[in-house]
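We store chain and fold; thus.
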Amino acid sequence: MLDISGQVTALAERAKELLAERPRVVVALAGAPAAGKSTMAATLHRRLRDQKVASEVVQLDGFLLDTAVLDGRGLRQRKGAPETVDAQGFLHLVQRLKIGGEVVAPVFDRPRDLAIAGAQVVPADCQVVICEGNYLLFDEDPWRELLPLWDLTARLDVPLPELRARLIQRWLDQGLSRAAATRRAESNDVVNVRRVLEKELPAQLLLAIRPEGDRDHASRAGKGR
């Protein structure tokens, strides 16, 4: 398992510095599918909580369109692609988070493969909101409208071969054969990865996540482009 303590420390310290200037900091934690965003967000949340900083994690996956809607649009096989997410809904949510006050958000229930409306409350006294998702720093409309709303931006940088291996493993973990898992990953997941990598917007922090054999890169938190 990778040691991400250095990256988490860099994020936590930067967020706390920004809190000296404003009552709430909205963080964008972006990266390709399978980059480890959920793990990083959860670890950062625990670190801030331990440091007595009120924080919440808000996931873009809560805005995935329902399967029935995707079926009506012929997009079920592309689930997870930008066009299968309520981008305008998420943009509106981030605008509300930026203003402050209590904000209610949907949550994606992965075992049931559906979003649950009103399942999360970001309280008015929340100091740091950690938003995580594939398309938070994505150079397509309307996603690029998110960029000026972020107080702190970070991207998980994982090599494409490693991302591909992780995506195949996800399907293997669901009981698919190696051939079927590879087909599922290549037909949609890897397509989304390439699209994210090709249309990245700059991040203030580039969090290099490397396989365990590449220790120098795995522990580096550097500035983005």
